[in-house]
Amino acid sequence: MASMTIRNIDDALKSRLRIRAAHHGRSMEDEARDILRSALSSGTDRTPHLVDRIRERVARVGGIDLADVRREAMREPVDLS
């Protein structure tokens, strides 16, 4: 198996890892392995993007049809010279 060293971890993060490991009754190294394993176990992100969550909610009520918004042409930039 491969080894990995992670440098420059701030003290607060290391402390949280130590507390989480103690809570689960294992070493910090084993806890870090478990966190990596669960974070990388699926091929996609575990949390959906905001737009996907909005689409799911809207789909439940049959969707929404929005009118097209007419836009004006862009204005010329102000000359500040």
From TrEMBL:
Record-annotated membrane-spanning stretches: none
Gene3D superfamilies found in the cross-reference section: Met repressor-like
GO biological process terms held by the UniProt record: regulation of DNA-templated transcription
Domain Antitoxin FitA-like ribbon-helix-helix: 2-40
Pfam families, A to Z: FitA-like_RHH
Name of protein: Antitoxin FitA-like ribbon-helix-helix domain-containing protein
